[in-house]
User: Which sequence fits this backbone?
């Protein structure tokens, strides 16, 4: 708990047994609830997470990041929900940077922006998708979000929408639906380490993003 607000952290994970322990070991003490959603892993991701004291939800088969996030949301009880990846790209010590603007009533939805220091290090497909999403989100919603695809984010419970997307397009769906519910969006700079990521973002995910953009 931080300043009277309970905090839940949801971490979708797929075959992250080698990295999830390091991530969980750095979660701040003020976090009330850590939920790891094992998205059909073939390794012992679940066991490692449980050994670190996380609540683990096991999906029988790999369904995608969106499905894992939805499963985590259904179990989360916090006033503020934080999402982060399991592969070590996000620094858990920066969680506080995401939730303080919400606690201070400066925002309802805070996105950890990776662009300030790391844009040049990002894979080409990621830079392309983010360029398109930033431009199109501004046209659709009238707001400028420089890192729409960041998976490191925090949101007030009352602005959580019903998630329908299965894969990486979930980041866009969540943003659009939260804004349409009246959420105030803020970005805050965070570190991100590229080169160790284990997610498989593909060109097809850009197509899915475009479909989500026009659907919602």
Assistant:
């Amino acid at each position: 708990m931080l300043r009277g607000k309970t905090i839940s952290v949801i971490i979708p994970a797929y075959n992250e047994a080698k990295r999830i322990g390091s991530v969980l070991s750095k979660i701040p003490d003020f976090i009330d609830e850590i939920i790891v959603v094992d998205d059909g892993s073939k390794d012992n991701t679940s066991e490692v997470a449980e050994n670190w004291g996380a609540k683990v939800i096991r999906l029988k088969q790999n369904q995608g990041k969106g499905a894992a996030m939805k499963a985590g949301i259904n179990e989360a009880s916090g006033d503020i929900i934080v999402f982060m990846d399991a592969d070590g790209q996000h620094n858990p010590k920066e969680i506080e940077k995401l939730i303080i603007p919400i606690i201070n009533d400066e925002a309802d939805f805070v996105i950890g922006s990776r662009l300030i220091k790391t844009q040049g290090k990002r894979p080409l497909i990621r830079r392309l998708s983010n360029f398109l999403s930033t431009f199109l989100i501004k046209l659709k919603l009238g707001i400028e979000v420089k890192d729409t695809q960041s998976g490191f984010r925090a949101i007030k419970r009352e602005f959580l929408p019903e998630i329908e997307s299965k894969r990486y397009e979930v980041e866009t769906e969540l943003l659009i639906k939260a804004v349409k519910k009246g959420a105030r969006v803020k970005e805050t700079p965070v570190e991100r380490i590229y080169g160790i990521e284990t997610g498989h973002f593909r060109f097809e995910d850009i197509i899915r993003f475009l479909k989500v953009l026009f659907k919602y």
Observations:
- The chain has a mean pLDDT of 89.
- The beta strands are 7-13, 33-39, 55-59, 80-83, 109-113, 153-156, 185-189.
